[in-house]
Records
---
Amino acid sequence: MKGFQITFFTQQDRKHKGQSLAEWLLAFAHRHGVQEAVLAADGEGYDDKGRFHSAHFFELADQPVEVRVAVDEETAERLFAALAQEDVAVFYVKTPVEFGLIGRAAC
């Protein structure tokens, strides 16, 4: 199937509607038709303003986090339209991809 991999970048300590922004994004994407998604913690990185963030031994609040989804074009459009209505700002990368299931059990 042709579609997009959309990666949202945030930090562990960012909140939206009383919960972690990353966890909120994961649930929001699911409610808007995304079937495959992953939340992944990263070691360190820069945000959209050029500030450095990293996971420290005693403090993980600043840890960079990604939410990645693989969707068809229609689901991507629906997801972005819904996000545009939210009071949130989140950096993303949208890349054209081919995706699907493989292996004998996938048939």
---
Amino acid sequence: MAILVDDSTHLAVQGLTGREGSFHGLRNKKYGTDLVAGVTPGKGGTDVEGVPIFDTVEEAVSEAGANCSMVFVPPRVAADAILEAHDAGISVIVAITEGIPTMDMART
């Protein structure tokens, strides 16, 4: 079995400023995960309990060293958020969003 998350994992949470993102992201931080960034377009430059927020995943990667992403965004933008993380070089992306449109799930 492959280990995808270890001591070298630096987590960004897409949607950290929202209810679900902050709940799960901060809980992961409490349990020892290296939460280095949140990503919420338009809220860059702020923070959530000391975790810096960036406007893009690319900024979270280049400025905070993120190499893993958890996605907590509405279904209508989930596919774009996942692809944004991939395009920024993130190789481990966790998304539990329900209700992603079927055609969005088929995008590559």
---
Amino acid sequence: MSEGTWSGSLDPECDPGDISADGRANALRLFNLYRWLADLPPVVTEPTRDAQAQACALMMDANNSLSHEPPESWKCYSKTGADGARTSNISSGPGVASVLGYLIDPGNESTFGHRRIILSNDLGPIGLGSTGKSGASCMQNLGGTGRAGKEWTAWPPPGVFPMQAYGDRWSSLSDTGWSIQSEDIELEDAEVTITSGGAPLAVDVEPLQGGYGSTNAIRIVPNGWDPQAGQTYSVSVSGISAAIAYDVVFVDCG
């Protein structure tokens, strides 16, 4: 999918410009595809949030660094960009490619903050900004007014799940972990079993910090195995107020 074309420029002009319509549309399309897989409603972008995300992306690219609290000494600093940085997922990669990275979420295994916000009941509208295929990107997503109302959300979710969404060339969900998040179900004492073809598979389970897109969440790490296309994996969660059970069917979309 095209990353689009960036119309701005870095230091010294520091013009945030904008990402072309196809770049923003492709990032949003992928974003909503993953939410659809998780049985969550689509979200839309909003111009003010897009502007914050675009100014944020300019700052990240100009300084070749990532920060949710960029100092005023940064190249191309602006209040608009700083506001965007504080309320965004931020990436050193372009907008379309970064969406899957947020859902794999390497380096954030204690929170899965990027993933949980994308899969939040409250998400939307959002802002998307990027400095093109060799630049940085920001996804403004805090302060949403969505009301999806799901009792719990898993990643990978119940149902058919494409292997192409399981990982990228750097990492996969076998490395970072699967997850379940909920606003109302306390998960810290959850016991999780995963089976395939009736055979139990080893997993490690740990609670995640609250406040990142959901009040409660757990990380489920495959221990010594990877899912295979064409196989069904049955997940069962006990030790909580309302037991959870679902199947994930992995498919290769080519």
---
Amino acid sequence: MDIIYIHELEIETVIGIYDWERKQKQIVSIDLEMATDIRSSAEIDSIERALDYKAIAKRLIDFVEGSKFFLVETLAEQISHLVLSEFDVPWLKLRLGKPGAVRGSRDVGVIIERGKKES
């Protein structure tokens, strides 16, 4: 198993439970690891057989910018479902952070793994 990753993708969205959070966009930070097999694309040196991380990042930006969830947990679940179903990824690990949510910490958030991890 190989892993393609996107690290520290920052996207503005409406997220949170407080009234002020519903009126103002905040930044969320995404780290995403996705299982794949890179041998086929590496063999022919072509994007056609590769997991296209640019397309995935673009789709995440579109989805997250348009979302209005109360909980980071819900957003994380929705992102994982989107990636697993739309990009034929068998397994992923997602870290979703909300910078500045707790005074004194860089960020808070969730880390989830979904799908089936193969060796």
